[in-house]
TrEMBL record:
It comes from Microbulbifer epialgicus. This is WYL domain-containing protein. Residues 215-282 form the DNA-binding transcriptional repressor CapW C-terminal dimerisation domain. Residues 23-83 form the DNA-binding transcriptional repressor CapW winged helix-turn-helix domain. Pfam families: BrxR_CTD, WHD_BrxR, WYL. Residues 128-189 form the WYL domain. It comes from the Bacteria.
Length: 297
């Protein structure tokens, strides 16, 4: 098994009270492995102290991990039991951006954020993220918005967040296609080992994910004060803001930014103040149907 490497991580988590054990358990449960180098980077410790700390944890929680000599890392076990439940959303944010949320202990000047995001189950998210990080497959029960409930064997490779919901991109072995799934629609995960990832399931064959796509955005032409919208887009002398993404992410970004994607810019310019200026270059993308006004005649 070839373990992936990760860049430096911040040393604060939520209220800056994340204990050493929490970091170990976060990495073990959501990544599936933990190396001495992870502890050295996160806590700025020398190798001797990091080794001693890991040894101490292993003695207290012998069933949570086993040491792999070939990988030079501790590996998650099926007998794992976390001392503290770490929210799945925190792990997904770290996996997606490499950033720990930090909570400032002081006065705030905004009301509590309100959204429709659901609390994700660590027991359902953890197996999926471990499969993604380690390059394995996973058997899940999934409820689709178009085809209903089904059992799937998936090989996940990427995650992203849009509209307050967490998604993952995976190869579906049943239909031999790459597709986009929502974490909150997983209804069950099997802990059984599935066949290792084949070449067909490699993310490099996910053409839609790998193909760069440019979104050219500008102020809505029917807005009475386009100069204000230009400031919103960070435009000075240029009249277009180009965003480079991929074919899968493009419609999600257009939706999140409230971009008018109609052919005749017929959406309300106050509700959708940005205009997609190169619609003819992206209207062939399958996912564009979710973009604001795309199907409007």
């Amino acid at each position: 098994m070839n373990l992936p490497s990760f860049g430096p991580e911040t040393t604060q988590y939520l209220n800056s009270e994340l204990a050493f054990d929490d970091i170990i358990e976060l990495k073990l449960f959501y990544w599936g492995f933990l190396s001495r180098e992870d502890i050295c980077k996160h806590f700025n410790l020398g190798k001797v102290k990091a080794s001693a700390a890991l040894k101490s944890y292993a003695e207290l929680h012998p069933r949570n991990m086993v040491y792999s000599t070939s990988d030079r890392a501790y590996i998650w076990t099926h007998e794992f039991h976390a001392s503290t439940a770490i929210p799945a959303e925190i792990a997904l944010e770290l996996l997606a951006s490499g950033i720990f949320p930090i909570k400032y202990q002081g006065p705030v000047f905004s009301p509590e954020a309100i959204g429709l995001a659901l609390n994700l189950s660590p027991e359902l998210v953890g197996p999926m993220t471990r499969a993604m990080v380690l390059g394995n497959g996973i058997n899940i029960d999934y409820v689709s918005g178009t085809s209903g409930a089904s059992h799937k064997t998936l090989y996940p490779h990427s995650i992203f967040k849009s509209g307050g919901a967490w998604y993952f991109r995976a190869y579906d072995a049943g239909n031999r296609q790459f597709r986009t799934f929502r974490f909150n629609r997983i209804s069950g995960c099997e802990q059984t080992i599935v066949p290792e990832m084949t070449d067909a399931a490699s993310s490099r064959h996910d053409t839609e994910w790998q193909t760069p796509t440019v979104l050219s955005l500008g102020p809505h032409p029917k807005h009475p004060h386009p100069e204000a919208l230009a400031l919103d887009l960070g435009l000075a002398e240029n009249s277009v803001r180009n965003i480079v993404t991929n074919q899968i992410m493009a419609p999600f970004i257009l939706t999140d930014l409230r971009v008018d994607c109609s052919k005749d810019t017929s959406l309300d310019p106050y509700e959708y103040p940005i205009h997609l200026m190169n619609r003819n270059e992206v209207d062939h993308l399958d996912g564009m149907v979710i973009s604001p006004g795309f199907n409007r005649k």
